[in-house]
Amino acid sequence: MATDEGFSLTLSEDQLEVAGWVHEFAERVIRPAAHEWDEREETPWPIIEEAAKVGLYSLDFVANAFADPGGLLLALASEELSWGDAGIALSILGSALAVSAIVANGTPEQQGEWLPQCYGSPGDIKIAAFAVSEANAGSDVSSLRTSAHYDEAKDEWVLNGTKTWITNGGLANLHVVVAQVDPELGSRGHASFVVPEGTRGIAQGRKFKKLGIRASHTAEVVLDECRVPGANLLGGKDRLDARLARAREGGRTATQAAMSTFEASRPYVAAQAVGIARAAYEYALDYAKQREQFGRPIIENQGISFTLADMKTRLDAARLLVWRAAWMGHIGKPFAAAEGSQSKLFAGETAVWITERAVQILGGAGYVRESPVERWYRDSKIYTIFEGTSEIQRLVIARAISGVRLT
C-alpha cells in the first residue's frame, strides 16, 4: 500500500495474505456461530479461544498489524472479522481499545508491564476494557464525573464514579479508566489509570441488552473507593503535573486521554462498519441473482440493479476513506480535514444505508430473525453512535475545515 514516498492502491503480498487468513477464520469459525451468539447475548468465549489458538487474538497480532508498513493491516482485519459478525468481532477486537490507550498515554515501562496482560495467552486468556463514557458524558467527554484523588501518604489514586456502555466492562481482567483529576480544567484535567484484576472497589454494574452487536458484552463499571498504586497512572505523575500546570497557565497541552485513543481507533471502527456493509451487499447481490419474480431474476429489474450499483459504489467509497485515514495515521500525517472522523462518519452511515436496502431487496425473507441481513441491519446502527456519534463526527469535521469553534 502507500507510503510517505508515494501512493498506490495495490495491497502488498503480506497484507493480502493476512487479510485472506482472517477472512478464512471469519468464514469457517465466526459466521456459522453468529446467529447462536447473537441470540444468547453472551461473550463468545469458545470463539475467542479459537482466535487465540491461531494467534488472531494476541498482542503479537495487534503489534504486527500496527507495524504494517502500509498502515492498513488492522483495518483489513477489522473489516474481515466484521464481515463474519460484528458482535463477535468486537469481542475479539475490544481489548485493542485498552491497548491503544496504554500505547497513547503510557510510558515504555508501563507498556511493557500492562500490554501483555490485555490478552494473556492461549491457555490463559485475558480481556481488557477502556472505560470512558458515563451517563452524562458520552459525546461530551469534558463532563466526566468519575474522579481520581491522589493519596500522597500512600502513593495511591482513589477512583470513584460509574462508567457506562463499556465494551467488556466488568468482565475485563484489566480496565483502563479515564477520570477527572482537576474538574476546573474540563477535558484537559483528565488522566488514565490502569485497574488490574483483583483490585478492590471495581465491579460490574448493569449489563445492557442491546439492539445489535449482542455477542459483545456491554455493561456499567462501578468504581467505589477503588485504590490503585501511583505507578498505575499512565504517563506518570511528573508528566501529569507538568501538563496540568501548563493548562492552568493557559498554555497548550497534549491531546487529552480519551480523545487520543479515539483518534487512533476511528479508522478501525469505520473498517468494522465496512465489513458489515460488505456482508449485506454481497448477500443481497447473490439473492437478487437467484430470486425470481414474474419469470425472471429480480436483478433484471432496474430498480434492484440500480440500488445494488449504489450499494457497491458507497461501499467502495467508504473503504477508501478508511484506508486513507489509516494510512495517514500510520505515517503521522496530520488529519487536516479530520479524515479519521470522515471515515467513521461515512462508513457508519453507509453501513446503515446498505443494510437497510439489503433487507428491502430480500423483502420478508430479510425481515425474519433467521436471516443474516436482519442481524446486520441491527448491528450497523451502533456505528453511527459509539466512539463519537455521526453528529459529533460532523462537528469535528466542520471545526477542522472552518477553523471555527462550532458548538
Describe what you observe in this structure.
- The structure is a single chain.
- With 407 residues, the protein is an alpha+beta fold.
- It has three domains: 13-120, Orthogonal Bundle (Butyryl-Coa Dehydrogenase, subunit A, domain 1), CATH 1.10.540; 125-248, Butyryl-CoA Dehydrogenase, subunit A, domain 2, CATH 2.40.110.10; 257-402, Butyryl-CoA Dehydrogenase, subunit A, domain 3.
- 52% of the residues lie in helices and 15% in strands.
- It has 14 helices and eleven strands.
- The strands form four sheets. The protein has a four-stranded antiparallel beta sheet with strand order 4-5-9-8, with no helix packed on it.
- Strand 1 (120-121) and strand 2 (124-125) form a beta hairpin.
- Helix 11 packs antiparallel against helix 13.
- The longest helix has 34 residues, at 257-290.
- The two termini are 37 Å apart.
- The model has no long low-confidence stretch (mean pLDDT 93).
CATH topology of the largest domain: Butyryl-CoA Dehydrogenase, subunit A, domain 3
Rounded mean pLDDT is 93
From the 3D coordinates, which CATH architecture of the largest domain would you assign? Up-down Bundle
Count of individual beta strands:
11
H and E order: HHHHHHHEEEEEEEEEHHEEHHHHH
CATH class of the largest domain: Mainly Alpha
Instruction: Tell me what portion of residues adopts beta-strand conformation.
Output: 5-15%
Radius of gyration using CA atoms only: 22 Å
Determine the number of helices (DSSP H or I, runs of at least 4 residues): 14
Distance between the termini: 37 Å
**Percent helix:** 40-55%
In the sheet with the most strands, the strands line up as 4-5-9-8
Low-confidence stretches: none
